[in-house]
Each structure stands twice: as C-alpha cells, then as structure tokens.
Design a protein that fits this description.
The chain is mostly helical and 331 residues long. It has a single domain, classed as Rhodopsin 7-helix transmembrane proteins (Rhopdopsin 7-helix transmembrane proteins, Up-down Bundle), CATH 1.20.1070. It contains eleven helices and no strands. It is globular and about 75 Å long. The protein starts with a helix and ends in a 15-residue tail after the last helix. It comes from Oryzias melastigma.
Amino acid sequence: MQTQEKEAGLCFPHLQNSSCRRSGRPPAESMLMYITLSSMSVLTVALNLLVIISISHFKRLQTPTNLLLLSLAVSDFFVGLLVVFQILLIDGCWFLGDVMCVGYYIVDYVITSASVETVVLISVDCYVAICEPLQYFMKVTKRRVCISVSGCWIFSFLCVFIVMKDNLRQPGRHNSCYGECVVVFDQFSGLVDILFFFIGPVSVVVVLYVRVFVVAVSQARAMRSHPLSVHGSARVTLKKSDLKSLRAARTLGVVVVVFLTCLLPYYCAVLEGPAGFVSLSSVVFFTYLFYLNSCLNPLIYALFYPWFRKSVKIIVTLQVLKPGSRDIKMM
C-alpha cells in the first residue's frame, strides 16, 4: 500500500529513483487553479483576437497608435495560449520533454519581451502626441511604427538566443529530476534580461509619462483659465484633435499603469532570487498576475475606446462578413 501511494505521488512512477514528485496540492486548490487559469486563457485569447480582427480588418482603425495596440494584442494573444502550459504545471510535473520545455521558455521570453518593448513605443507615441502635437504626424507615421514594431520583435528574438544559449546547447541540463522544467540564466544573460527588459523599459516609461502628465495638467489648466472669446458666448477650448490626443493619452496611461502594476511584482520576485524573502506561492501568484495583464488590456480598450465597442458589435453580429465592411467609419 505504501509503495502504491509513493508511486501515485510521482510524475513518472516507473522511474522511482529519478522521477520528480507531484506538488501534492489539495484537490480543491488544484481545481480552483484549473478553473482560474482556464478562464484566464479563454478570455485572453478571445478578447485579444477581437482587437486583432478589429484593427486588421477596418481601414479607419489602422492608425499609427492602433498599430502599436495591434502588436501588443498579438503578444497578449499568444500569452493567453501559453497559459495552457501553466495549467499543465499545476501538479508540478512536465510531461512534454526537455526540448519542449526550452521551446516553451523561448516563446514565452520572446512574447513577453516584445510586449515590454511595445509598451515603451506606446509611451513614446503618447509623449510625442501630447508634448509635440504639431510635429506628431510628421514624426509618427505608419511606416516608422511598422519598422519600430518589427525591430522590437527582432530584438527579442536575438536576445533570447543570448539569454538561453546554455539551455539550448543541452536541454534539461538544469533539471534535478524527470518531470521538471527548469531553465537557468548565467550572470551575463541575467544582466541582459534585467537591463533591456525591466530596468531600461520601466525607466523610459516612467520618465516619459511623468513628462506627459506635467504637460497634460498644464494644458488642462490653460483650458480652464482661458478668457472668453470676443463674442462672450462660449469659452475657447482646445482643438478637436488636441482633445482626442488627451483622451488617447489618458487611455494609454491606464494601459501602462496596469502593465507596470502587473510587471513589477514579478520582476522584483525574480531579482530576489532563490535566497530572497518571497515565498514560492507568492512567485506563482506574481506569475499569474503578469499573465493577467494580457487579459486586462482589451477590457481597458472596451472601457475607453468607443471604436472598439462598435467593432466588437459588428464582429459578433457577423456584419464584418458583408462586402464593404472594411470601409465602415469607426472613429
């Protein structure tokens, strides 16, 4: 009986001496995690797919800013698919082999890195729109945005081979038992990761949005304090384009704040390392919080962008299949 119970607690019962043990979580806790992660995965994939279809299909939505949101939605979409692998790891066992383990971490690294770099581009776009509005349409063009987004993804692909080089040479070399999925970065790789995908991007985003906030506040004060027009019938307000820029800045600001809220705890836990004071359960929670950000972004669009709500209605009611639907006025 004891032998059967011992084998039931192993990932690979036929490899008793070298198999990893299951996490041993209570069934209720495991079921809650299954339901939570499954729901998160389905919602993330579905909502970001709506964003991808909306911006890709409707010509009026293919603005430079929305192309950045499209890149972010693509990375978030794949994050939703990757959550499936987290579901497989709930019991603490990896059954897909060492090569698939390294492949999973490579895809995860590229997607999350590209997502971080895209948020930096969104911050730059917002900065130019608010702080240099007269030069925005000259500096921020579709061509430049496409080149910048492509550069982010290419840069992420290049960095992953630097960071994962040791794990690529010999997949599974850092596993202590069969059924484990572990990758380890050396000191240089860890420095590249922290510098280019945490400290650098977060610093740029914070500096830019502090500047944007200062300028936006000054513009709002100017609107309130502007004297009445010569006819005395109404108060002079900003141009319609300026108001749109302020609204877009507010929305993108929410996206960035939510992103940092979900990102910072995870990276702080990573920086603590194994010798830190963060418990394993906290690391798991921070990882799920990091993935949750990919589900929250489309909800933010639905809350602040009328064009997204309108496009979702058209897609869900299948009006998107009608001829000429690409030219519908969305904004």
